[in-house]
Amino acid sequence: MSHIADTIHRLHEELPENVKLVAVSKFHPAEAVAEAYAAGQRVFGESRPQELSAKIVALREMAASSDAPEMYSDIEWHFIGHLQTNKLKLVLPYVAMVESVDSLRLLSAVDGWGAANGKVTDVLLEYHIASEETKQGFSREEILDIVSGQGFRNVRIRGLMGMATFTDDEEVIRADFARLMSLYDEIVRLRDAGLCPGAGPDFDVRSFGMTHDYRIAVAMGADVVRIGTLIFGERV
């Protein structure tokens, strides 16, 4: 069994049933996705629009030349990187979720694209919980402003996403994740009190935790973990 297949099997056994594994395939070839797919993985994360669309084409060609032309059609793609508004057409037709909505401008653009193309897109609001200023994301107040509004017709806000400070200090990581959990719980309380119309009944996703901290994330309540290097190795 290959490293990819072995790691996928181990993670599926380790993670609780209610935690979704997003295999972050960015910077790795379509053949690596195919290998993880053969091991049972169905949810993949990409962060660059051109790479996502090229990978989808490559997998379709691989399936068409095989004895199973429908293979890979059940992949659930998540976009996890910074998305520019001029690249929406390369991403939104193909993804089940955009996990990395980090500005009101992008949120409005996704909603507008959906209105023009007849699609409702599931999104997560990226909460800036890390100490690094280079990381994207909303502040707590900005997220509360968004979910306190009337919402969007072609965007479904499903929850929050965040990335902890890149450090080996577990206390710092836990504090970062705790901020996301606290805001999520606050929004749910406000929603249940009728004060957050922008967060509907489907607001139920907390996506945090990566290769180096996913076990902490799962212990703290993450519903989604995004793991790349552990599965696929260093970027190629």
Automatic annotation (TrEMBL):
Keyword set includes Oxidoreductase: no
Recorded superkingdom: Bacteria
Names of required cofactors: pyridoxal 5'-phosphate
Coiled coil (residue ranges): none
Modified residues (N6-(pyridoxal phosphate)lysine): 26
Record keywords: Pyridoxal phosphate
Ranges of residues in domain Alanine racemase N-terminal: 3-235
An example Gene Ontology molecular-function term: pyridoxal phosphate binding
InterPro entries: Ala_racemase_N (IPR001608), PLP-binding_barrel (IPR029066), PyrdxlP_homeostasis (IPR011078)
Matching SUPFAM superfamilies: PLP-binding barrel
Primary role: Pyridoxal 5'-phosphate (PLP)-binding protein, which is involved in PLP homeostasis.
Family to which the UniProt record says this protein belongs: Belongs to the pyridoxal phosphate-binding protein YggS/PROSC family.
Protein's UniProt name: Pyridoxal phosphate homeostasis protein
Species, as recorded: Candidatus Cryptobacteroides merdavium
